[in-house]
Write a structure and sequence with these properties.
The structure is a single chain. By secondary structure, this protein is an all-alpha fold. The chain has helices at about 1-20, 35-60, 75-95, 110-140, 150-160, 170-175, 180-200, 205-230, 240-250, 260-275, 285-300, 310-320, 320-335, 345-375, 380-385; strands spanning about 165, 170. It has a two-stranded antiparallel ribbon. The longest helix has about 35 residues, at about 110-140. The radius of gyration is 20 Å and the shape is globular.
Length: about 400
């Protein structure tokens, strides 16, 4: 029921977007189009994972946490859909950013400056804006108790090292707690200058070893954050960085997948299996391997029978970072619908899901145009960084 709901509501939402020319001022046809379209689907499935949690909990007790186990079930869809999006987003990040290491014309200082400037301009403005929205919503909801602790929490949050509270404001209740992935992405970005330095010092002989070692270091930090941190962190998607790098490193070998109908069918089939097969504990490695094959195929330029090259879908992909940060806030307001107005049936939930998607897409488009894009296009030098935009 919920899978069908997601498919129907997403299709109807995309039809609305196409009808009203959502792509205007947003569409970017450069780069690998299949990856742009993929980002749209990934951000959408992450968003729906939170919406599904909400509507399922209206009628049933939510049990799909770390203790849930079934080999194949709809319950795995609830447990896996968010993980599905995050793991593939991490693969995209590695695919886009480890290629910086192929540049041998820059000094380490020049590469570090260019990389960090592009990441700060691309990620920080929208993240700070989302934080301000959380504080404003918390203020009007009566959750704000001004204190020195709130100021410290706010500063930590703005520096990507906060937890699920800004003072008395429970941030995860407002934005669905999505910001944890950005901490791991920043570890990827910050590791690249060190790899670049060591790679130049060793004459490029150990680049793959250095990259895999750095991913191991990021994984160790992520595990430490999971064990001793104050906010949720899942270290397992860090393994997706390795897959993303391998997809980039061996990209020439995967080019045969680009126009293969068999590869397309395989990617779709493996994606469906990954959504419904358990990812509990160490079975996550099977889940990750399935997604790795999916990514190898799509990163080759395979557009899944043209689906991922849809102008509307690619435009949603262009605003996927805003969508990732903002959909939880849209859901926060949808949850305010009085229970007396909610009809507990498939049709109503599907229409509500369509409303959620349309509202999330258009709010993301607005924040992209008003918050993200001015920084992306602030100079001609930012055009390259716009094509290698933040994945989540």
């Amino acid at each position: 029921m919920y899978v069908l709901m997601m498919v129907l509501s997403l299709v109807m939402a995309l039809m609305v977007l196409r009808l009203f020319s959502f792509h205007r001022g947003v569409y970017n046809g450069s780069g690998i189009k299949s990856i742009s379209g993929l980002r749209a689907l990934l951000a959408s499935i992450v968003a729906f994972s939170h919406f599904a949690h909400y509507v399922y909990s209206l009628d049933h007790e939510w049990i799909f946490d770390k203790d849930y186990f079934a080999w194949v079930s709809q319950g795995n869809f609830f447990a896996n859909s968010g993980k599905f999006g995050v793991a593939l987003f991490f693969m995209i990040s590695a695919f886009l950013f480890y290629r910086w290491l192929d540049n041998d014309k820059l000094t380490t200082a020049e590469l570090t400056r260019k990389l960090l400037k592009s990441r700060v301009r691309r990620i920080v403005p929208m993240f700070w804006f989302s934080a301000l929205l959380i504080v404003v919503i918390g203020w009007f909801s009566g959750d704000v108790v001004a204190s020195g602790a709130m100021l410290v929490d706010g500063l930590r949050w703005f520096l990507f090292i906060g937890n699920y509270h800004i003072g008395s404001i429970p941030t995860a209740n407002i934005n669905a707690g999505v910001e944890w992935t950005l901490r791991l992405e920043w570890l990827l970005y910050l590791s690249i200058p060190f790899i670049y330095l060591l790679n130049r010092a060793t004459g490029g002989r150990f680049k793959m070893l250095l990259i895999m070692g750095s991913i191991g270091g990021i994984l160790a930090v992520a595990i430490a954050l999971r064990l001793w941190g104050t906010a949720y962190t899942d270290p397992r998607p860090v393994l997706g960085f390795a897959t993303g790098y391998l997809a980039w490193h061996y990209r020439d070998r995967f080019m045969a997948f680009r126009s293969s109908g068999l590869a397309t069918a395989m990617a779709i089939a493996l994606a469906v299996i990954a959504l419904f097969f358990t990812s509990s504990t160490f079975y996550y490695l099977i889940f990750l391997c399935l997604l790795a094959v999916v990514f190898f195929i799509i990163s080759s330029g395979n557009s899944l029978f043209g689906l991922l090259e849809s102008k509307t879908l690619m435009s949603v992909g262009e605003v996927s970072y805003s969508l990732y940060l903002i959909h939880g806030i849209v859901l926060y307001f949808i949850k305010m619908i009085p229970e007396s107005l909610i009809q507990h049936n498939f049709v109503f939930y599907t229409l509500l899901s369509t409303l959620f998607f349309v509202a999330s897409f258009y709010v993301a488009r607005l924040t992209y145009l008003c918050v993200e894009k001015p920084f992306i296009t602030s100079s001609q030098k930012k055009k390259e960084a716009a094509n290698a935009s933040a994945t989540i």
